[in-house]
């Protein structure tokens, strides 16, 4: 028997595939399709140099979408946590290759600064711990598809601690 074009007996197989994706050790599904949770952010930012986040904005502006606020809330909680409270981070904005390069670079800077200000205002993250940088279309996530949405992203990068002066 078919329902919506899928054989009912195929549903268990489809559900099993989704279950495997959701519990993969790399957390690929959490990073690419949805909101990266606070726990994953704390773990990843404590052990890797950088992490791409799906923080969306309005077209050609730095207005934050409601979905972006969900991701920024998770990021804010993570950055305010005891585990990451001593770290400094760079928030890097990326765009796709639509439009002029100079315009994209300025737009990505505004977006990175919008995320920075949101984290400072809403989570009390010390301003000195956060640096905003706009890269525009300089580092596309998918060079074969330069105008694809995957290129429009925010990257959070842990900055190296500066050595203390002797």
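^ Assign residues to that structure.
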């Amino acid at each position: 028997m078919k329902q919506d074009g899928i054989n009912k007996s195929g549903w268990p197989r489809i559900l099993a595939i989704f279950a495997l994706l959701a519990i993969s050790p790399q957390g690929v599904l959490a990073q690419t399709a949805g909101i990266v949770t606070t726990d994953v952010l704390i773990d990843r930012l404590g052990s890797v140099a950088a992490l791409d986040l799906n923080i969306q904005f309005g077209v050609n502006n730095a207005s934050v979408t409601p979905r972006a606020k969900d991701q920024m809330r998770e990021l804010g909680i993570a950055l305010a946590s005891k585990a990451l409270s001593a770290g400094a981070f760079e928030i890097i904005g990326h765009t796709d290759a639509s439009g002029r390069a100079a315009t994209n670079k300025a737009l990505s800077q505004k977006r990175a600064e919008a995320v920075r200000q949101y984290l400072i205002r809403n989570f009390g993250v010390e301003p000195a711990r956060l640096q905003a940088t706009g890269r525009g279309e300089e580092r596309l996530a998918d060079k074969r598809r330069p105008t694809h949405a995957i290129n429009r992203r925010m990257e959070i990068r842990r900055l190296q601690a500066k050595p203390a002066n002797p």
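Strands lie at 2-3, 6-7, 50-53, 88-94, 130-136, 153-159.
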